[in-house]
Design brief:
Blueprint lengths: L3 H15 L4 E6 L9 H8 L6 E5 L2 E5 L3 E6 L4 E7 L18 E7 L3 E7 L5 E6 L21 H8 L6 H6 L9 H11 L12 H20 L40 E5 L2 E5 L14 E6 L5 H10 L3 E4 H8 L5 H9 L13 H10 L3 H19 L6 E4 L14 E6 L2 H12 L3 H9 L4 H7 L2 E4 L4 H16 L1
Parallel strand pairs: 11-13, 11-14, 12-13, 14-15
Antiparallel strand pairs: 1-6, 2-3, 3-4, 4-8, 5-7, 6-7, 9-10
Helix pairs in contact: 1-6, 3-6, 5-6, 8-11, 9-11, 12-13
């Protein structure tokens, strides 16, 4: 979607070509673009002269003799300047690109054209009074742009909100001009998690966000915006800021600041890129119960073993399950009773590999989880000692809602590619079976959303251990 810098680039490009031009004809090929009656729209603009082009947020404002045309490009709207054979000889070769996606054409008295092209047809045009357009919707609902918004104003707008800061930055009534790409860039520059709630953003962080937004937008404007996917400004002018993007579009690539891997998740359906190390949530309030989880094959057990060797109390859910599976224990009895027609045992109790293969083959992973999770949860609760720091090592921490017991949650993360490779090697299974296991768990996006701290395990062990020590130091204080 064209964002503020792209719209500013369009504005500046068009000002070089269409100012002081008089409209003599308007062709509308898709009425849905025009929010006014089509005849009224044409009658108001024909014989009017473009005096100026302004911008408010992501809206372009074409100012005429006595009226203003407000245009929003939405997802893929583009303006092209063109000329007829006897038109603008200084512009260059004849350029008329009138295809099925060209929905509105303005013809000027000098035989030049302004063409609106929109593949998805989401763009809108609306007429408003020239001298009062800021007092009409949708413009009167916009917040200030970062250039004019003071940090304390922004702080007071968000500091009672339970919404995530990523969503608040996308809300044009709070701060105008930031779209999905630049929200990710601003939060990365500010080193703030996109999952942090507005009420938890400090005044200092609010200041970082506003100043970061100014810096990112000004640089993007200077470089002509970002040409992402099919977006181009008028007449194919390509921006260069896409070469400066630090996180957006760089999933599984190295963070330029810390060298760890950028991850992509989704917040309210919007792709969100961030560095889980630089943009982790702060450790606050001396947590006592710390949940430890991870993607399958991410290396959570390695972290758990390290903590045990350091002398910390680690309640291991996998160990609890192994005990439950021993002969005549409660888990053993329940599983045999449920899957009574299958041979799932060995000399000691339930054979974990037999059980795994059976539930995968018969799509009964969820059935098994419903049997075992309540038993594991009860054992964990019994082993928590009030007052001491305890780590809950639970692979399905969020799925079984044990995170509700925790003061802090830690997620061990790897790239999707490494996760599959490690899982296949560790469990000696085909990649397709590894994908089935992963598919039965909560999505990566949801886990990123719920986790407080993310450990990056894409590099060597020493790097992982260093991160653990930093977290322990922050916890102990």
């Amino acid at each position: 979607m064209p964002e503020l810098p792209e719209v500013e680039t369009v504005r500046n490009t068009l000002k070089n070509h269409i100012l002081n031009k008089k409209i003599i004809k308007i062709d509308v090929y898709y009425n849905g673009i025009i929010e006014d009656d089509i005849n009224y729209f044409k009658n108001c603009l024909i014989n009017q002269t473009i005096e100026d082009i302004d911008r408010v947020g992501k809206f372009l404002i074409f100012k005429f003799d006595d009226i203003a045309l407000v245009s929003h490009l939405r997802m893929e709207g583009k303006f092209y300047y063109a000329h007829l054979p006897n038109g603008d000889k200084n512009f260059g070769d004849l350029f008329i690109n009138c295809d099925k996606h060209t929905h509105v054409i303005f013809t000027f008295s000098d035989n030049t054209l302004l063409m609106y092209n929109d593949t998805r047809k989401f763009g809108k045009m609306k007429l408003l009074p020239k001298d009062d357009y800021l007092n009409y919707p949708p413009l009167n609902k916009l917040g200030k742009e970062p250039f004019y918004l003071q940090p304390n104003e922004f702080y007071h707008k968000i500091h009672h909100s339970n919404k995530l800061i990523k969503n608040l930055l996308l809300d044009q009534s709070i701060i105008a001009g930031l779209g999905n790409i630049y929200c990710d860039e601003v939060l990365n520059l500010s080193m703030i998690s996109p999952f942090k709630k507005g009420k938890d953003i400090t005044l200092e962080e609010a200041s970082k966000i506003v100043l970061g937004a100014r810096k990112v937008l000004l640089k993007a404007i200077d470089l002509g915006g970002s040409t992402i996917r099919s977006y181009h400004s008028s007449n194919g002018v390509d921006g260069k800021f896409q070469n400066e993007l630090r996180v957006y579009g760089h999933e599984d690539e190295r963070c330029l600041n810390c060298g760890n891997y950028i991850v992509k998740t989704f917040i309210n359906g919007r792709g969100t890129h961030f560095c889980p190390i630089c943009q982790s949530k702060a450790i606050e309030n001396n947590p006592k119960i710390i949940g430890l989880t991870g993607f399958m094959g991410s290396g959570k057990s390695t972290v758990s073993s390290y903590l045990k060797n350091k002398g910390y109390n680690v309640i291991d859910a996998d160990e609890i399950v192994r005990n439950l599976y021993l002969k005549d224990n409660l888990g053993y009895k329940i599983i045999l009773e449920t899957f009574k027609d299958e041979d799932l045992t060995n000399d000691f109790g339930i054979d974990h590999l037999k059980l795994r293969d059976y539930v995968l083959k018969n799509n009964k992973v969820n059935v098994l989880n419903e049997l075992v999770h309540p038993l594991v949860k009860n054992e964990i609760i019994k082993n928590i000692n009030v007052g001491e720091i305890v780590f809950l090592d639970v692979p399905l921490l969020f799925e079984v809602h044990l995170d509700q017991l925790c003061d802090l949650t830690i997620l061990v993360s790897v790239t999707k590619k490494k996760q599959l490779e490690r899982l296949a090697i560790r469990n000696n299974m085909p990649i397709q079976d590894a994908k089935k296991l992963i598919a039965n768990q909560m999505s990566r996006s949801e886990k990123y959303f719920l986790a407080d701290i993310i450990l990056d395990n894409n590099k060597d062990l020493q790097h992982l251990y260093n991160q653990i020590e930093q977290i322990i130091e922050a916890i102990i204080g």
